[in-house]
User: Fold this.
Amino acid sequence: MRPLYDDKLSARGVTDSAQRILNLIPMRSGDRGLHVVDEDSFVMLALWSLLRWERKVGLVALECLRVGLEALSRRLDQLLTAKADEHPVAASPSGIVLLKTGEPYEHWDFHKVLEPLLREAEDEALAMKHDYVGSEHLLLAVIKLARTDLAQVLESHSVTCDRVRATILDILG
Assistant:
């Protein structure tokens, strides 16, 4: 298991609560049976983790927008279940293998798939003149990086960058 706080993330200004949100992703992906994690599924997992973590600015912004968090969570759960079904694994005499290809399962590189999300969150923080990356910046990064299915789910809940950003700025004064 990865350490709860990461010196590399701290050096980049990622707050403790944002680090906790990010550090839950590997554990939650395994719990869900999501063994192959790409940028799209990582963005979904980041939102899932944010929705399940403590009430920080990102979650408060969604509440202020009257987003149905339970309905959003259910739709996100469906998307993650479908992603997990794309790459099932099984035990074999040689170890764990991907069922569809028979290739050995190798755990995914957290920092590699985190980087696009983190860069986008840092850009959001800079645009807001913040010297830290918090849950609010992670949420904006998730919205910006959402593709196809997740983008449709967010849109159906009226979750857009402009609305969320304006709400965050209102919350923070």
Notes: The radius of gyration is 16 Å. The CA atoms of residues 42 and 113 lie 7 Å apart. DSSP finds nine helices and two strands in the chain.
